[in-house]
Amino acid sequence: MNDAVLSFSGIRQEFPAPGSDVGIRVIDGIDLDVGHGRFVAVIGPSGCGKSTLLQMAAGLLMPTRGTVHHRGRAIATINREVGFVPQQAQLFPWKTLAQNVELPLLLRGVGADERRERVAAALDAVGLSGFDHYFPSQLSGGMQKRGSIARTLVYRPDVILMDEPFGALDAQTRMVMQNDLQMLSRDASATVLFVTHDITEAVLLADNVAIMSQRPSKLLANIAINLPRPRNVFEPFKNPGFEDAYDAVWTVFRSQIGIRQQPH
Ligand SMILES: Nc1ncnc2c1ncn2[C@@H]1O[C@H](COP(=O)(O)OP(=O)(O)OP(=O)(O)O)[C@@H](O)[C@H]1O
Ligand SMILES: [Mg+2]
């Protein structure tokens, strides 16, 4: 037993291969603790099981072996105490942006006045003030993505699971959102488990970077990033120590990426 907010122990995951009864092992024994108020980034090659891990923490998938604990309790069903921004987060097309963001509050029985205030604050936090009455089809892809993030932030979960949340955003919006998330997670002392493909993003945002191997995946390393905060996400290289932290992650991660040699 430990006092981590989220704890993955001995996680193994097998899926039946499509068209066959044979199980394919995707995750081959992962142990990872996420302490209170910590920001942990998970990186790993495509298909190694990053989204699978988040789905387990959200209680949407039970591991073949091992257990995920949330605040000491084994997750055995859908976990409504965490906020989850899935990789393919989508707003309901028949609801306006404000109605989409309001939904988790309605489900939790929050009163109308407070709902209005919190929706406005959440939309403001993702830079979408004034778009309340727009339907998703009237928003750009990046705006829809930000709307789905607002829908999770609005109920102030103490654990936030984010699956490549900024992947679809343009480079400028992405930096602004990284900066906002950094402030927001600090102010709310939220615990964040954040999947990304981007080493720079991981190093800029995280207290720890967990690096997964190719599947069947194991945890290759869990590297502490001790850069001072707040960090300058707009000019990564201006953060003292950034280069060394990036190198520490890259040195482990590069073995997992097929880098072609240039012919001589
Ligand atoms: N329901 C399922 N049935 C069968 N195989 C699955 C299922 N869900 C995931 N997989 C397989 O498990 C592996 C891990 O999937 P997952 O989505 O967790 O990868 P990922 O690390 O998030 O990849 P990416 O970086 O591309 O998002 C993939 O090879 C995928 O094909
Ligand atoms: Mg994924």
Question: How many E strands?
Answer: 10
Form type: globular
Predict the CATH topology of the largest domain.
Answer: Rossmann fold
Query: What's the alpha carbon Rg, rounded to whole Å?
Result: 19 Å
Mean pLDDT across all residues, rounded? 92
The largest sheet, given as strand count, sense and whether it forms a barrel, is: 6 strands, mixed
Number of DSSP helical runs: 7
CATH architecture heading of the largest domain: 3-Layer(aba) Sandwich
Residues in helices, as a percent range: 25-40%
Structural class: alpha/beta
CATH classification class of the largest domain: Alpha Beta
Which hetero compounds are present in the coordinates?
A: adenosine-5'-triphosphate, magnesium ion
Unreliable spans? none
The share of residues in extended strands comes to: 15-25%
Distance between the termini: 55 Å
Order of helices and strands: EEEHEEEHHHEHEHEEH
The H-level CATH homologous superfamily of the largest domain, spelled out, is: P-loop containing nucleotide triphosphate hydrolases
Widest sheet: strand order?
6-7-8-3-9-10
Whole-number count of domains: 2
Which key features would you list for this structure?
264 residues, alpha/beta, Rossmann fold, six-stranded mixed beta sheet, four-stranded antiparallel beta sheet, 7 helices, 10 strands, binds adenosine-5'-triphosphate, binds magnesium ion
